Amino acid sequence: MSVSLLLMAAVPIYSQAKPNSMAKTSVSLLSGWQFREVGKEDWHPATVPGSVHTDLLQNKLIDDPFYRDNEQKLQWIGKTDWEYQTTFTAKPELLGREHLELVFEGLDTYAKVFLNDQHLLDTDNMFRTWRVDCKRALKPGVNTLRIRFRSPINEILPVMAKMNYQLPSPNDQGEKTYPYTRKAAYQFGWDWGPRFVTCGIWKPARIDAWDQLRVADVHIVQEQVSVDIARLNAEVDVVAATDSEATLIIDNAATKTVITRKQVKLVPGSNSLSVAFTIPHPLLWWPNGLGSHPLYNFRARLLINDALVDQLSTRTGLRSLELRQIADEQGKSFAFIINGVPVFAKGGNWIPADSFPTRVSRAKYSQLLESVRDTNMNMLRVWGGGIYESNDFYELCDEMGILIWHDFMFAGSMYPGTQEFLDNVRYEAIDNVKRLRNHPSIVIWAGNNEIEAGWMNWGWKKNLPASLWEDYQKIFHGVLPEVCAALDPSRPYWPSSPHGGLADDPNSLRSGDTHFWGVWHAAEPFANYEKQTPRFMSEFGFQSFPQIETVNSYTTPADHNIQSAVMLAHQKHPRGNQLIREYMLREYQEPKDFESFLYVSQVLQAEGIKIGAEHLRRIMPHNMGSLYWQIDDCWPVASWSSIDYYGRWKALQFYARRFYSNLLITPHVDGQNLNFYVVSDLIKPAQAQLNVSLLDFDGQVLMNTNKAVTVSALQSQSYLSIPVSSLLSGKDTKRIFLLCELLVDGKPVSNNEYFFAPYKNLLMPTPRITTDVVLTKGGFKVSLTTDKFARAVYLNVPDGGGVFSDNYFDLLPGRKMEVEYRTPNKMLPDQLRSKIKIRSMVDAFER
Ligand code: BMA
């Protein structure tokens, strides 16, 4: 049944309000823009929303910033002042309105705005919305709007020159100015991101014209939500010009049925209106994997004398939310409870999907978020060094059931605590909390990324004035929680990620959330993931290279060496390539060539994160989250991502679908025994069959056992235990592996393998893989068979423009594997067969 049918069955369809020439209108200001360097003569066409870098690129005034080492050559752009200008015609109808307001949804960052040379506005925060009266400055006929942007770097240098300490900002790859500026930190450089200090009109601009009133905001407060009833409150902010009597109507915008109406008295200025209503038997919104994600459209309409004056719609999903923290023997739990169900959070950390965020189209967000959804993830952490994302992002997360841990945009540094800075932060928080609070996907607000940990654990406290900690308190224990409590009390506020919760280490394993970087930054073995028993792991990660097609986008063949200047320019971690190689040689021999190195790096990353993620799931409910670092990239680069800049899945993304499966079979040696755990994220118990086989690489079955099991709901449990000694007695561990399969209704739902030696010690045979390709409705079915075990089989169609439904899988003798290949390009099955390149692990090394 549709949401709209369920809503308000008995309420009449409303009669159309009288048309009203007094209703609010808006004039969009997105066209006719030009830009130039301040002090230069020539104007060039500009795109709004956009940024100076993308405008320079479109005008062919610079080369592609992502190609080779162009980044270095383009640093002057961020140190330059720029101006933008457009003209528009103001019609008499517009000029006749009582209130004319110029609205910028986002200006990046230090800007002066002039309308017909009248100075109307000064801005200093990329994340705020600006609204300013422009009636005085507007004139009949042609009007000129001009915005002058000052370099965010030059703006701060004099401020820093007066300080006797430097705010720690290890990731800023230039003058270390970013903590002073309310602008996306990653644009100053990060350990996966280039330094492109942008400016420009990065969100829509318009003029709002109104007479009596405008509806400024609608907030649907979820007082109580259960299967029986949703008790809701529509809180409507109205800005009015005069005293008046009005009718507030809340309706279902999808079906145009009235939910409730109320007579209200308005006074000049802001009016906070509120009307309570209920929805019996609401359709509940569930995270991905636990149910569907129905959304309700609500609209607030204001009528005066039966004429519609203004209206505003919003969309939300109805669900209850609790962050359950209960004291226990180990410390305190940390679990998100949605509609009464403890949800194990599976996913990763999200960074802005482009260095130039205005380039990220809704289609790109869709592709990335579908990749998240389709790999059994249910949560992303929007990390604090990026941006409050565009509405598209949150709308898509709502539609796909992707929960969001939302940091405020502070990361990796201490921040100033002047009154001016605090006020700026307060307005920023108000703007964004108001914009985002109706999204059911957002389940927590967190103050910042790693600042508390930086202060307590990384030596900042020792080396910096104590007043910086007071400034910290003002923002993260003052301004931000105050805004959240006032505007969004239904969501938890958490001061930092990580934060301990109990009065101890911010990165405690006993309570709160944890970032574990012993693996990678401290070069600890992957096995050390299993020594970590956090309550909620919000970061852990390992780097890899993108695939060759992505590397080709920024290199020439002469750059194809891991240590070449260009490859190092696309590796922002100082020891990155070295660390990848060091870990690689622990498990594998040296790959035989550049392309093999890229491929092995991806398998290495995927296998490593798999150890961490499966462990984190096995120890549930002690631990209730596994968010690896990081999902996506903002440019083509070697990084911790599982999806590269072009949306191409690395091996890790395919592995994630397996290790985040709702039912997971995961073998583990505990002491003398191999235990076969099944982790269930299902709300109901499942009847399943457990198959365990010991095989050699030729496919010979050395041992096989089956067991029917009832998998407990929302549990991790070992269902079978075999002494390792009995399993291995008389066997050559270099030639064997264990295959574990979990079947429901005879169909495999999860499988896993276990090896008894590192890859380089295995006597891996050379498989002969054969393929068969047939045309299907949506693409091609590719069937693969092998005569011997083939590890991490990777299929690629160079220039095929398509994607395989699965990749980086093991192929077993006697078992046919079928995958889909979809491509927009036309080709025949035979052509595809001849084009598919197949490699498995043995191909990566000299034989
Ligand atoms: C975490 C993140 C990022 C960083 C990543 C890799 O600390 O919060 O700041 O990019 O590690 O070093």
Describe the fold and architecture.
- This protein is an alpha+beta fold and 847 residues long.
- The strands form 13 sheets. A 6-stranded antiparallel sheet has the order 3-2-4-9-6-7. A 6-stranded parallel sheet has the order 29-28-27-26-25-32.
- Mean pLDDT is 96; it is low at 1-14.
- It starts with a helix and ends in an 8-residue tail after the last strand.
- It is globular and about 90 Å long.
- The protein is built from 18 helices and 46 strands.
- The structure holds beta-D-mannopyranose.
- Beta-D-mannopyranose is lined by residues 190-192, 385, 412, 449-450, 515, 539, 629, 640.
Describe the SSE topology.
Blueprint: H1 3-6, E1 25-28, E2 34-37, E3 44-45, H2 52-58, H3 70-73, E4 82-90, H4 92-95, E5 99-104, E6 110-115, E7 118-124, E8 130-133, E9 141-149, H5 152-161, E10 188-190, E11 193-195, E12 205-210, E13 213-225, E14 229-240, E15 244-252, E16 257-266, E17 269-280, E18 296-304, E19 307-316, E20 321-324, E21 327-328, E22 331-332, E23 335-338, E24 341-343, E25 345-350, H6 362-373, E26 379-382, H7 391-400, E27 403-407, H8 419-436, E28 442-446, H9 451-457, H10 460-463, H11 467-487, E29 493-494, E30 514-515, E31 537-539, H12 548-552, H13 565-569, H14 576-587, H15 594-618, E32 625-628, H16 651-659, E33 663-670, E34 673-680, E35 686-696, E36 701-711, E37 715-723, H17 724-728, E38 736-744, E39 747-755, E40 769-775, E41 780-786, E42 790-796, E43 803-804, E44 809-811, E45 817-822, H18 829-835, E46 837-839
Parallel strand pairs: 25-26, 25-32, 26-27, 27-28, 28-29, 30-31
Antiparallel strand pairs: 1-12, 2-3, 2-4, 4-9, 5-8, 5-12, 6-7, 6-9, 10-11, 13-14, 14-17, 15-16, 15-18, 18-19, 20-23, 21-22, 23-24, 33-34, 34-37, 35-36, 35-38, 38-39, 40-41, 41-45, 42-44, 42-46, 43-45
Helix pairs in contact: 6-7, 8-11, 15-16
Bound molecules: beta-D-mannopyranose.
The site of beta-D-mannopyranose has 11 residues, from loops.
